[in-house]
Amino acid sequence: MAKLKLLVAEFDTPAEIVAAAGKLQSAGYRDYDAHTPFPVHGLDKAMKIKDSRLGWIVLAHGVAGATLGLGMQWWMNGVDYQMLIGGKPYFAYQAFVPVTFALTILLSAFGAVFGMLFLNGLPRWSHPLLAHPGFRRHTDDKFYLSVESVDPKFDATKTRALLEEIGGKRVALLEAP
To answer: What sign does the dihedral 161-166-172-177 (CA atoms) show?
Structure first.
């Protein structure tokens, strides 16, 4: 298997990176990423990023938690170990609300955390970007676009020329160790 390579270009302003991402997208690149110190309005639209599936994962886990909480209590009190206390019905759902709510929230939280890790491809212990000398500034005041070699249109010289043409500064080719 070939080593992962990527080209990284630095940009100074949010407007520059949005315009550059749009030009990369219109040039046919699909496997590239933007690294910014804060959320940049319009960047996801320029990159044509689809809506996240995380909300559906959280919803499914929440429904599973509510079903598990309600079903468990119904089974235990209404079927498995019936106790008639004070003439109350076996399925007194009002008493089941706290446990049902707690399991809904608990499983939703687990779905959010583990779904986010799965969708982001984490944990990833090493990435070539971490070797870039100026990349630490992406958390402070610089904006970066990186194009990975797995992109079908990736060609080191043509992609470098395109990144420089659209305003990228200090374009560097990085390789996975």
So the answer is: negative
Q: What digits encode the pLDDT tens for the residues 121-133?
A: 888 888 888 888 8
d(CA 35, CA 79): 55
Same domain, 136 and 160: yes
Around Cβ 142, how many Cβ atoms within 10 Å?
A: 20
Angle 38-41-167 (CA atoms, 0-180°, nearest 5)? 80
Task: Output phi, psi for 143, to 5 deg.
Answer: -125, 135
Provide the domain limits for residue 162: 5-50+129-175
Give the neighbor-by-neighbor strand order of the sheet with 169-175.
32-35, 143-148, 5-11, 169-175
Locate 48 and state its tokens.
Answer: 């044509």
Domain presence at residue 144: yes
